[in-house]
Fold each of these.
Amino acid sequence: MNRDDAIKKIKKCLALSRSAEPHEAAAAMRQAQALMREYRVDDRDLSMIDVREVRVRAASMAANVWDVSLVNIVADAFGCSQYGSVRGRFNDAGNYVRKREYVFVGVDAAADVAAYAYQVLSRQCAQARLAHIRKQPKNCKPITKTARGDAFANGWVCGVRDLVDRFASGGKNETLLLAYMAEKHPDLKTEEAKNKAAKVKDMGHVLAGIKAGEKAQLNRGVGGIAPRELLA
């Protein structure tokens, strides 16, 4: 039995130690304490087993400001930490392809629900952004259309903040998550988001995005739990 298995067994023993049967409870507590001594497990180790990491694919390979902002809003609302990850592999055609993912780190189901919320909203934002770009005059340069689309998306994320806050339901165990991230991901680096909309002076695109974001939809799954099939 390795240390991770021992921690899981300790958690089960501690649960049994709350049994109404005195002999069963005492035996379970003795076993938990023995395992904790043998594997040098403390209370923080036991708490960390409740921390989950859930990966979701980013809206695009680029770390766009609107996408990063949405990740941050969702993570904060659901009491999670988060980080980005870029992974690559060779596809069936023999070409090396990369994909960007965001990883939500939370206690119990918080990471699952945050990942679900991000995935649903990022799809809505990406679709709304594309529709806004298609509305632009045909004589607009591609770079101008992209900038206007990004300005719209930035506004959209601002507009959806209240919806995310209403949907969220958890508090952040900041001390536990900081300890978890320091132990599991000590080498994470800060990445600067790409802001193609920085030079857009026309606030009309931002305001249009805010108005559209306020109409976004985010529904709970059965029993208030995010559907697992949407978290691929």
Amino acid sequence: MQEITSLQNNLVKQTVLLKQKKNRTASNLFLIEGFKGVKEALDSGLKIDNIFIGENFNKELDIPENLKDKAYKVTDHILGKIATTDTAPDIIATAYQKDYELKDIFSVQCPIILVLDNIKDPGNLGTIIRTATASNVSGIILTDETVDLYNPKTVRASAFNIWKIPVVKITEKSTIKQQLNKFESCKFAATALKGDKKLQLYSDIDYNQPMVLMFGSESHGISDELAEQADYLLTIPMNNQVESLNLSVSTGIILYEAFKQRSFKI
């Protein structure tokens, strides 16, 4: 295993740049921090670029033969420079971003699809991705205003599930219904506090059909462009002293109602 001891090493410098969105986009790479994430990435067959292993790393990790020359033993100081957390993990990898298209979301029968509009909190986005993966969502669509999928906080909050579910970004959200219905006719539902359409209790909807569930930011809610395309406007009952639920909680409630209706089994 090669060793790197200098912060001036070019590979270290390039890796540190991945903390910034523009560099992640330009290189098509992102950071995976910590043993659990690196192990899951390797086990999932995610395309790995490089692995940086701390001098005190003592866990069992099966590094494929083709990656042996991409694994580097580094100082804790270097790991601290690369890491995005206050306490650096003992291993960090860089990996290639997954590239999906809309058609990939429709590779299953009777899909259930999430549209996330203008989500600004990377922690919320990551938590929703984790919940979506757990509840058998077919895929996720992000509008152009949503936070970067590969933001390190999103990667961590997803519990390293971002490469386990198709995620696609769109720019023309005013035509999303038209775009998706080219693949399969779906019913569209959005969470809302008010609207022209009659609000319906989230649990009164039949989720045993191809569904698109649309959620907006906590501060602004779903955009008018998306709300106008909804067949249903959904509401979640709550104590009237509470203005709203956390976005990831709202999403989880509705996703597990759909999961329940679709006969999940323990």
Amino acid sequence: MKAHINGIEMHYEVSGSGPWLTLSHSLAANTAMWDAQMQALNQHFTVLRYDIRGHGQTQATPGPYTLNQLSDDVHALLVHLGVQSTHWIGLSLGGMIGQTFAIRHPEMLGHAVIADSSGRGAPNAASMWGDRAKLALSQGMSPLVEPTLQRWFTQDYREKNPAVMAQIGQMIASTPPEGYAGCCGAISGLNTLDQLRDLRSPCLVMVGEQDMGTPPAMSELIHQHWPASSYVVLQNAAHISNIEQAQAFTDAVMKFLPH
């Protein structure tokens, strides 16, 4: 489905029944990233999946974007749908948007799952994300596919799942360069940790044991700053833990979310 939200055409999908649950994907992904979780989630929740600005079928606009802007996009979509309260699952960039949403709209947030994410950029964040944005804008997404897959999944998983790698490689390659670059700008400005201390919503902070993109130490900091949070490390998983360890991820989510 499409809606005109915050000046852009935004793609979203609604399925299942029960309390609202919003899913927010990673950089260079789209709603399909959550396919492995949908059967379980649809049994207990009305699930909103959406494509972040400049990703999937949601319109790209010139960047750089900000996390406030990306949070406002989904807030406006929720208002459009008449949603007054929602649980949240966000991974990587989706977890950063989730933190920002929690800070800006705490009255709308139920339980939150923040997976494989961070609350503060690394010292070299501006140059690293700037370089990736420039590469996407100058050469397209193709040069970014293989390095991204190497960060996202363990070598063992990549070698054993070539069909999955081809599918996800295509997802990365099809991301609009303008949208990717815009979101790189948003990530480079990440700084939520201090504001997390004021949150009252329960939170599950989850991370892959072998996540090199946002290492466990970054998730530990979110856990330490978010008062009502718990912390789970998923074994044998790198950055996209909801795919690499789909069952363990889903089990942890279902144990945490009220249903």
Amino acid sequence: MIQNLYTSANGVEVDILRLDTIDSLAPGNKWFKLVPNLVAAQHANATRLISFGGAYSNHLHALAALGHVKGFETIGCVRADRGDPLTPTLLDAKSWGMTLHYLSRSDYRRRNEREFITEILAQYPNSYLIPEGGANKIGAGGCGKIVDLIPNRGSDYTALVLACGTGTTLAGIASMIADGVRVIGVPVLKAEKFMARDISAMLAVLGADRDNWQLDHRFHGGAYACLPQAVLEHMQTFECYHGILLDPVYTAKASYAVQSMVDNQEFPAGSRILLVHTGGLQGRRGFNL
């Protein structure tokens, strides 16, 4: 569903794509990343799904929910200590049957190392591994289907703007969006050293070596899950005015970025901008909102 948000004084029109309304169990971009991965797991005759995430991970939350519905065991390799109180996210995941495999911060940093992955998989036979955030070719290809929800493959818009954690969703959208449309990613963490490289690599894997995208690193707020006062105030005003909830980790920063760019007249007069709401509202529970 696409809704109009506002038109600026110089005629920049801003709409929002409501992926947060897609599915109650795995709303937002997680649906597009995970559903095709679950199909691949079924084809591989796997009985378990295993992945990585933090204590408030939207990804693990959605994986536990979908795995429960589809009849998979799920294992969440969580960046947390075993004695830590369970967050609402992890309580939900456990209620759906997810086994929590705790990892120290040092071990968690090894999550993409082949040797470490082999060690984890040896403990859980017949598992299908999905990288953190669904960041694989299948997940990115699934995110390309988001473009099907936009009339004319987005050709009516000047630019799409979305928050980026791994860049997987941006890669999928950039691979399928109409020619002439700019895809602007707003990293929600300090990612100058790696995110552009990762997105380029994912686009190459998808066979879509396009130069229709860019990253704007001005709006991460200092760190992942850091909610600066300016973003919080924007979020509160946005929600009051539009009646649409934002998540404080991802879409709040992307929406703040769009508003800042519009206010600074960084879009030409008459532009049409589509903000992508990537879901993640369950993560609000980690903030005092």
